[in-house]
Amino acid sequence: MARPDPPNPYRYLTLGALGDALMTRAGDLMEGRRVGRRDTAHLLISAGHVVRPEVGAPGLPRARVLSGEAGVFEAFRGQLNDEQRAIRYRLVNLALDAVDWPIQQRGRLAAMAAESDEGFAAALREVDAERAREPKQ
Questions:
Q1: I want to staple 75 with a disulfide (CB 3.0 to 4.6 A). Which of 39, 45, 64, 96 is the partner?
Q2: Which helix (H) or strand (E) holds 47?
């Protein structure tokens, strides 16, 4: 008797985390590194459900609503928080890229920005203040 597949480890990732996983896997493939066939399949399945959410993978908010497992508010409020956190993290890193902020100095700012809109604003203001103190070249 065949063993059942293990659960998909990418199933509940935020869009940002899923995008990061896809880019990492693409890099692995481009570099010729060996990657797991089944793990890659799980990654692609999760990405496919994001691109075509009408497929309704179990556990995704839409599927939970359609199955009657949860109401709309209950199903989507957690995803809203996760997506907001992911977009703040993504945007602060884009901003830090724009000013060539050193990689080793990004962690605290990215964490602060991801937590809340206020943290996002504070992190970017801190970057602006630091840049204003730098001598112009």
A1: 64
A2: helix 37-51
Q: Are 113 and 84 spatial neighbours (Cβ–Cβ below 8 Å)? A: no
Helix axes 117-133 and 107-115, enclosed angle (nearest 10): 140
Calpha distance 60→78 (Å, rounded): 11
Residue 61 to residue 133: CA distance in whole angstroms: 46
What is the rounded CA–CA span in Å between residue 68 and residue 78? Answer: 17
pLDDT in tens, 95-136: 999 999 988 888 899 999 989 999 999 999 999 999 999 887
Using alpha carbons, select from 21, 7, 18 the residue that is nearest to residue 58. 7
Helices 72-98 and 117-133 meet at what angle, rounded to 10?
Answer: 10
Spatial CA neighbour of 40 closest among 50, 28, 57, 56:
28
Q: Is 135 left (phi over 0), alpha (psi -120 to 50) or beta?
A: beta
Q: Model confidence at 48, in pLDDT bands (50, 70, 90)?
A: confident
Cα 69 from chain centroid (whole Å): 25
Query: How far apart, in whole angstroms, are the C-alpha atoms of residue 13 and residue 28?
Result: 20
